[in-house]
Amino acid sequence: MNNEQIIQLFMDYLLGVKHYSSQTAIAYRHDCEDLVKFLNRENLGNIPDVSSRTAKFYISDLSARVHAKSLARKISTLRSFYHFLMQENVVEHHPFLEVKLPKVIKKLPQFIYPEDLEHIFQTIEQTTDKGIRDYTILETLYSTGMRVSELSGLLLKDVRFDDRTIIVHGKGQKDRLIPLSIRLSEQLKTYIIMTRKSLVKTKTHKALFVNLKGDPITARGVRYIVHQILLKSSSFLNLTPHTLRHTFASHMLSNGADLRSVQEMLGHAHISSTQIYTAVAKEDLKKQYLSAHPRAQKKS
Fold first, then answer.
1. What is the pLDDT of residues 155-197, one digit of tens each?
2. pLDDT tens, residue by residue, 111-152
């Protein structure tokens, strides 16, 4: 097999067996193709020819052109790649096992204080179909903590008003159930009965959220809507759909939610991915203490 066929074999495995999203698989493909470009440029052979020495040479080259977080991701990709190739008997040894991952300084996720978030919601005028739809999208993102890709993939049947829950189709084709607040449940009813019906008109698809033409909304469309809401609110906050996900988790933990429950609602495969929000909650608590306690401030 040539390099292109080997990479395609890996892609088929990621999509067909591991059930990775197409976006994730494309990122893996780019990482593998970057290695091939390096091998061609340096005349170092093909994918099966890579030695431990070549691997270290490549990582040295990468270190000069990408930051630590990207470098760590690329190394992780190539480790998975060659582990797969060994299982398939395409290669006889794993050249990236001895390569060390760089230390990545983890930044605390950004979140929005409740009063700032409330101000942003208040700037959305719910007197038009667009306003009601935009408000509902923002409320859904914040109240459930779901990803943009998950929101854009929701269907009408995923909303269950009888027990106030919503079925979210997460990464790796894993579904999860998230409770709906009374506020969000009522907001979704208004949107579905009035707004969505007005926008969709005679179209027959079952997508929950739609654009102004009545077609299923895309993840890109959701990001654009959130960006426009931010501009209108004249907020200095760096609000993105993912910031709302961070805010959901931070507010839940700050108000006493169980870590495992938040992990389940976020759809994190590992508890370590959720634990970072406990640090955010602690920072929030510290700020509240310093601003509210009469003896927390230094004497002037």
1. 999 999 999 999 988 877 788 888 888 999 999 999 999 999 9
2. 667 777 788 888 899 999 999 999 999 999 888 888 888 999
**CB neighbour list of residue 257: distance below 8 Å, 6 or more residues apart:** none
**Same domain flag for 123 and 216:** yes
Contact 262, 176 (CB under 8 A): no
- The mean per-residue pLDDT over the stretch 42-49 comes to 94
Q: Are residues 196 and 135 in the same domain?
A: yes
> 273 falls in which pLDDT band (50, 70, 90)?
low
Q: Are residues 136 and 266 in the same domain?
A: yes
Could you count the other beta carbons within 10 Å of the beta carbon of residue 162? 5
> How is 234-292 classified by DSSP, letter by letter?
T--S---HHHHHHHHHHHHHHTT--HHHHHHHHT-SSHHHHHHHHHHHHHHHHHHHHHH
Domain containing residue 27: 3-87
Same domain membership, residue 164 and residue 47: no
Q: Are residues 236 and 286 in the same domain?
A: yes
Contacts of 148 (CB under 8 A, 6+ apart): 141, 219, 222, 223, 241, 242
Please state, in angstroms and rounded to a whole number, the distance separating the CA atoms of residues 130 and 203: 18
Whole-number pLDDT of residue 284: 52
Number of structural domains the chain divides into: 2
Residue 231 CA to residue 223 CA, distance in Å, equals 13
Pair 222, 232: CB distance under 8 Å: no
Looking at the structure, tell me whether residues 203 and 284 fall in a common domain.
yes
Question: Catalytic residue positions?
Answer: 147, 171, 242, 245, 268, 277
Please tell me whether residues 182 and 274 are part of one structural domain: yes
Asked if the model's pLDDT at residue 267 lies above 80, the reply is no
